[in-house]
């Protein structure tokens, strides 16, 4: 695996993200030497949701108003029901996510995180997964939905739920290490990873 030390990943979130879906990838990325920045419409802190109650608060590193896609190598979208539901009606959040897809940069979304991507209008024909309750929405947006722990298509990495985090984190790091596949979109092949990874 190529050295990914010093690469930069933006985590776009609102209040109500599922705690583990942000903290687990963040820890895995930082342990691999990646610089991780929490980007949010919130100015100072964002509050996590843990299963059925509010939990920790984390500092916001970059205001969404000031965030620019060109400053990052990839985008991470954690789930939680409240978080993506707020982001998907935020025009700046939609534009920020859209700019990563437009520039063929890796985008990783877990659980309900792909809701925001529906609003970009760029999911037609892409292989994806998500929390099962989103499958009809994603299919209506043109995506091909799979019940797999990780699905990757053209640098878009998706997983179903926190139980898939180990595979999700590994694939995000693997994709960051293999930036050559991002540079030539036409040569990118779809891979689906199952329990065997």
Can you tell me about this structure?
- With 197 residues, the protein is an alpha/beta fold.
- 29% of the residues lie in helices and 26% in strands.
- The protein has one domain: Rossmann fold (3-Layer(aba) Sandwich).
- A hairpin with a 2-residue loop joins β4 and β5 (53-59).
- The longest helix has 13 residues, at 19-31.
- Residues 180-191 and 193-197 have low confidence and may be disordered.
At a glance:
The protein has 197 residues and is of the alpha/beta class.
Query: Structural class, judged by helices and strands?
Result: alpha/beta
> What order do the strands of the largest sheet run in, or round the barrel if closed?
6-3-1-7-8-12-11-13
Mean pLDDT: 91
Q: Which homologous superfamily in CATH is the superfamily? A: Class I glutamine amidotransferase (GATase) domain
The portion of residues forming beta strands comes to 25-35%
Number of structural units classed as domains: 1
- Would you identify the regions where 5 or more consecutive residues have pLDDT less than 50? 180-191, 193-197
Give the end-to-end Cα distance, rounded to a whole number of Å. 15 Å
Largest sheet: 8 strands, mixed
What's the helix-strand series?
Answer: EEHEEEEEHHEHEHEEEHHE
Percentage of residues in helical conformation: 25-40%
The rough form would be described as globular
- CATH level 1 class label: Alpha Beta
Q: What Rg do the Cα atoms give?
A: 15 Å
Number of strands: 13
* Count of helical regions: 7
Which second-level CATH architecture applies?
3-Layer(aba) Sandwich
CATH topology: Rossmann fold
